[in-house]
From TrEMBL:
Species classification: Bacteria, Pseudomonadati, Bacteroidota, Cytophagia, Cytophagales
Domain MIP18 family-like: 15-79
UniProt xrefs under Gene3D superfamilies: Fe-S cluster assembly (FSCA)
InterPro entries the UniProt entry points to: Fe-S_Maturation_MIP18, FSCA_dom_sf, MIP18-like
Stated name of the protein: Putative FeS assembly SUF system protein SufT
């Protein structure tokens, strides 16, 4: 039997919500693509902070991706306000793609 903390359960729930966000140019979800850098639940704040990146700073689908991420987080956590923070350091690279993502891309 494994036990998880409430924070670990929240992070897992947020991760599953973000797996529904598909990068429309690549066809892979943003979690397996390695675009999600962090999921935070700041204490005493009614928000969830998602630190993520895009495949490039000038990604033409960036706004659609971040809007979709915010919407799905809002659905998973209706009591919290999503805060999407785009970061470009470190830069995204193929080395960030999960094993599952690589298998999908190579199929």
């Amino acid at each position: 039997m494994t036990s998880t903390t409430p924070l670990a359960e929240q992070i897992a729930r947020a991760t599953e919500a973000l797996r529904q966000v598909i990068d429309p140019e690549i066809g892979l979800n943003i979690v397996d693509l390695g675009l999600v850098y962090g999921i935070h639940f700041p204490e005493a704040e009614n928000r969830i902070r998602i630190e993520m990146t895009l495949t490039s700073q000038f990604c033409p689908m960036g706004e659609a991706i971040t809007d979709s991420a915010a919407e799905l987080i809002r659905e998973a956590f209706p009591e919290l306000e999503p805060e999407i923070i785009l970061v470009f350091d470190p830069r995204w690279g193929h080395h960030l793609i999960s094993e599952e993502g690589l298998q999908y891309l190579n199929s």
